[in-house]
Specification:
single chain, alpha/beta, TIM Barrel, 16 strands, binds 3-methyl-2-oxobutanoic acid, binds zinc ion
Length: 531
């Protein structure tokens, strides 16, 4: 990383980030704001895998985490900073010395590193949360941005809860941050309160009123509490002149989530006639990224979700199908293949060889770490192909996710499962688990075969966790499909998700449950401050 000390009287944006007026910087915060969503916390390996995929997607900036929040986050940022070369890697930092130094240290190996420092500026947040006066917030802004700019060339400043801040005061804070060297100014709608036209005009007024506004790139960061995060972000771009959008894959994020990357990118691309701007995103990687994030976090994408939902390009009505066959643009405004949906859904079967499997992984944008990983995934593929005649893209992605999950330190692994259920009888299940190097067996009864199996696991796991979500999803439609199960567990205020897939949904449930239990056990190191 270029650590040249900056002259605080000038604030030229570092070259990589000077967006020409017709280029929109895409700042992805799936690994930071997205991860703050209860249950979406990820391991270091999972974050690294997603960061690699974000680089393939060609996002400009990857916000990899919040270095000062925990040892786990610090290390995740550092390993992402060491690996990613084409995207800028960013760490969040509160506006204090400890956070900023931790961010700089975590980013030290980065080819391009950015410190993103923030402080709240709304009367409510300053008085009730920070217990600081406006003058103290101004002082802290100055100290924080100046220090960050001494450590890196690329500094973003966010005024948390900007949209509910008093305009005159916000102008003073922003002017000061730019004077101290901030190269990007972010105007968050932290609580999702904005309305598109009002937010766009707010941003435009700020840019008109701040005297040194043209020395920074302006950015939008909108939450989705009223379902308007994407609309507000686009208004910030069109009306307000923002040239950076902060967003997450699948709109992942706290509460109702953040602005969805895929929707903003495809809106700007599909309506280039209106927006007159472009992004550098490789849109053909959108679907693979969406699936990776969904399978890693266990946050299922709703079927009617724009761009990446299973039905987003499905035409069920006869009139629509007839129109599409005559001319695609009668009912389609985007091409499914442009966002990564493949026309050829059945990909492989049990006669497919390793090369065909490897080629398909490549086409799906999946990169496994080594030949050994490919071999292990291929062995699983063969095993699945023996049980299921047609292997779909979704099956391949699920088994890769499972293969990746298996690489984490496993406290519990499923060795065998058998269960018996009959109408009118109480179902019973027997599981064999590998635990701390030895095999243990337990039998239990339950309401149904899934309940019995999970109770049998608990005989040995004794987790004391509460299940807050259990969902089953057919990966590819028919009854021959694999079931993908998501389990969400809560213990002592911590929430984790586990995902498992198998043609047998009882086995898929046991795998998902064990995946969540393994995360609960391994999570202790990840506990730390949250924004
Ligand atoms: O929503 C928000 O205000 C944030 C800031 C930390 C940028 O996430
Ligand atoms: Zn946010």
């Amino acid at each position: 990383m270029d650590n040249t000390t900056a002259d605080s009287s000038v604030a030229p944006a570092s070259e990589a980030f000077v967006a020409s007026t017709d280029t929109l910087v895409i700042f992805d915060t799936t690994l930071r704001d997205g991860e703050q969503s209860p249950g979406a916390s990820m391991t270091r390996e999972e974050k690294l895998r997603i960061a690699r995929q974000l680089e393939r997607l060609k996002v400009d900036v990857i916000e990899a985490g919040f270095a000062a929040s925990s040892r786990g986050d610090f290390e995740a940022i550092r390993s992402i900073a060491s690996t990613i070369k084409d995207s800028t890697v960013c760490s969040l930092a509160r506006a204090n010395e400890r956070d900023i130094r931790a961010a700089a240290e975590a980013l030290e190996p980065a080819a391009h590193g950015r410190i993103h420092t923030f402080i709240a500026t709304s009367p409510l947040h300053m008085e009730k949360k920070l217990r600081m006066t406006p003058e103290q917030v101004l002082d802290q802004t100055k100290i924080a941005v100046r220090l960050a700019r001494q450590l890196v060339n690329d500094v973003e400043f966010s005024a948390e809860d900007a949209y509910r801040s008093e305009e005159d005061f916000l102008c003073r804070v922003i002017e000061l941050a730019i004077a101290e060297g901030a190269t990007t100014i972010n105007i968050p709608d932290t609580v999702g309160y904005a309305i598109p036209e009002l937010y766009g005009n707010f941003l435009r007024r700020l840019r008109e009123r701040v005297p040194n506004a043209d020395r920074a790139i302006w950015s939008v960061h909108c939450h989705n509490d009223l379902g308007m995060a994407v609309a507000n972000s686009l208004a910030g771009v069109k009306i307000g002149g923002a040239r950076q959008v902060e967003c997450t894959i699948n709109g992942l994020g706290e509460r109702a989530g953040n602005c969805s990357l895929e929707e903003v990118v495809m809106a700007v691309r599909t309506r280039a006639d209106y927006f007159g701007i472009r992004t550098r995103i490789d849109t053909t990687q959108i679907l693979a990224t969406s699936r990776l994030v969904s399978q890693t976090t266990g946050f299922v994408v709703q079927p009617n979700k724009a761009i990446v939902g299973a039905n987003a390009f499905a035409h069920a009505s006869g009139i629509h199908q007839d129109g599409i066959m005559k001319a695609r643009d009668t009912y389609e405004i985007m091409r499914a293949e442009d966002v990564g949906w493949s026309a050829n859904k059945i990909v492989l079967g049990k006669l497919s060889g390793r090369n065909a499997f490897k080629q398909r992984l490549h086409e799906l944008g999946v990169q496994l770490d080594s030949e050994l990983d490919i071999n292990a995934a291929f062995a699983k593929f063969k095993d699945l192909a023996d049980r299921k005649s047609e292997i779909f893209d979704e099956d391949i992605l699920a088994l890769v996710t499972e293969e990746n999950a298996a690489k984490h330190p496993e406290h519990f692994a499923l060795v065998a499962l058998s269960q018996h259920s009959e109408m009118g009888e109480t179902p019973e299940a027997t599981v064999v688990l590998a635990m701390a190097g030895k095999e243990v067996t337990a039998t239990a009864q339950g309401n149904g075969p899934v309940d019995a199996s999970l109770k049998a696991i608990e005989v040995h796991a004794q987790s004391g966790a509460e299940m807050v979500l259990y969902s089953v999803n057919a990966i590819s439609g028919s009854t021959e499909s694999q079931g993908e199960v998501t389990v969400r567990l809560q213990r002592s205020g911590r929430i984790v998700n586990g995902v498992g897939a198998d043609p047998d949904i009882v086995v898929a449930s046991a795998k998902a449950y064990l995946c969540a239990l393994n995360k609960l056990v391994g999570q202790a190191e990840h506990i730390g401050a949250q924004v």
